[in-house]
């Protein structure tokens, strides 16, 4: 790519950027406040004109995509060159810095490289059979027009939200956008649609695929997919808790269809992560230390095991449950946020009649907060925020080869940081006990056995699945 030469002159009010062009035409300067140097997404050089009362030197350069020259000089006028060595392939800005020391003081300059235009669509929009109002979130650096391809989808509005870069004064071009749409009800099977995103730059385009749930019918002659739930008790001050979480995540990676996680923060876990009702479960299981984990409400996993052992125990318990405790029930359905409420439309299939408890948890992902034994920017996922049912669930009577439909609704909990990161965990429990033979698992009679479970994304759906 052709190299470009840019000159940046620092004024009392900020930075003025001038570009030199071959035709010699004058261009108006762009004034930037603060010590932020904007560079184009091109290989080339930016010159920064400075005035020093004393000798100076450049220290603490961050980033391997540019270098500064010269690195030192005498008092007086000087031009520092920011030599950009590579393009930024990302849709978000590349931000690095360098520091100039002079006369006993140090000034940090942020170097911000422009973006590659693009719209990130990493998932599809999933909507329920009843239709209604839905919101789909995505990221990118280009605003767009959203045009539905099918007539059962209507886009009402688009919102954009950007954040400050680490220089504290520049708003990123990388935005979260939210498409608000209305979807008609679906009287048939699952159907597919799409929304074309036409960038206002006339170049950038993307497609959002929309899948709408159809009528649910269970195949009672097939073996229901038997999922297991690992209820992990944890806290931000627990240094050994990340170790158990690593084992849990490795187990899920090894067997993603059969294992679902539930993280319950207790005993004054910090960062707004604490789940007060979780302490009732901790008392019920007689937990006296963290970490602690329980699979399907009947098997305890010790908190002192290394991650590899935790993984093996969880995988063994999931296999054992599928083989020795095949599910009599399964759940599917959709979830949405409507008028400030989380609404879950649930269908429960049962092969044989029986009394069960339906437990519906609201979980949140993507919360960044320090974790002892982890890091200062540890990402906390699958964190319990609320229950839409009583402890252990609401009682339901299921029939043989039956299908029960129920709707649950609660206001979005005040503790939720980002409703886009919510999902629903449904567990179907029954009274009873089970003792198996998985190595290192500690079996106990806690009064309940989990028969099956399902995870449903908020503003999405899940269908019946089979082994």
Largest sheet, in brief, is: 6 strands, mixed
Average predicted confidence as pLDDT: 91
Strand percentage lies at over 45%
Query: From the helix content, strand content and strand pairing, which structural class follows?
Result: mainly beta
What does this structure look like?
There is one protein chain. The protein folds into three domains: 4-113, Immunoglobulin-like; 119-212, Sandwich (Immunoglobulin-like), CATH 2.60.40.10; 228-462, Immunoglobulins (Immunoglobulin-like, Sandwich), CATH 2.60.40.10. 8% of the residues lie in helices and 49% in strands. It is built from three helices and 35 strands. It has helices at residues 241-254, 278-284, 307-324; strands spanning 4-11, 14-19, 30-32, 36-39, 44-52, 56-59, 66-69, 72-73, 76-84, 94-102, 105-113, 119-120, 125-127, 132-140, 144-148, 153-164, 171-183, 191-199, 205-212, 228-234, 259-265, 292-295, 299-301, 329-338, 341-350, 354-364, 367-368, 379-380, 383-387, 394-398, 402-411, 422-431, 442-443, 448-457, 460-462.
Brief summary of the model shown:
The protein has 467 residues and is mainly β. It has three helices and 35 strands. Helix 1 packs across helix 3.
Structure keywords:
467 residues; mainly beta; Immunoglobulin-like; 6-stranded mixed β-sheet; 49% strand; disordered N terminus
